[in-house]
TrEMBL record:
Signal peptide: none annotated. InterPro entries: Glyas_Bleomycin-R_OHBP_Dase (IPR029068), Glyoxalase_6 (IPR041581), VOC_core (IPR037523). Residues 4-118 form the VOC domain. It comes from the Bacteria. Pfam families: Glyoxalase_6. This is VOC family protein.
Length: 123
């Protein structure tokens, strides 16, 4: 039986690890976690915030995910959106999910990310 999502993997072009670190650590507030040595040799980087893990792997023929995306739950979504905007990230609000406030943004290589927070009284 499935019990949880362990991680989500996104792709990135080779050589973009520094830009990814700056975004996922400095902008999103995640922590970089070490990759096992055999996997670290392939490039990319991994990040965590609480139980959430995002793995960024390098791909030679990289194309950003424009539709597929992780949905990342946040607290105080207005302040979080302000944080991203203050770092120059685009914030696009979307009111089409009942019971939630949410917005979309993109990481530095163009992958789509969704940030959402249930409205009060929901979880």
């Amino acid at each position: 039986m499935l019990t949880a999502v362990d991680h989500v993997q996104l792709a990135a072009p080779p050589g973009t690890e520094d830009a990814l670190r700056a975004y996922y650590v400095d902008v999103l507030g995640m922590t970089e976690i070490p990759k096992p040595p055999v996997l670290a040799a392939r490039g990319g980087c991994w990040f965590a915030a609480g139980a959430v893990q995002l793995h960024l792997g390098t791909e030679q023929d990289f194309r950003p995910a424009k539709k597929a995306h992780p949905g990342l739950r946040v607290r105080d979504i207005e302040a979080y959106a302000d944080r991203l905007a203050a770092h120059g990230a685009q914030v696009t609000w979307d009111d089409n999910l009942p019971g939630h406030r949410r917005f979309y943004s993109e990481d530095p290589v163009g992958n789509r990310l969704e940030f959402l927070e249930p409205l009060r009284g929901r979880d």
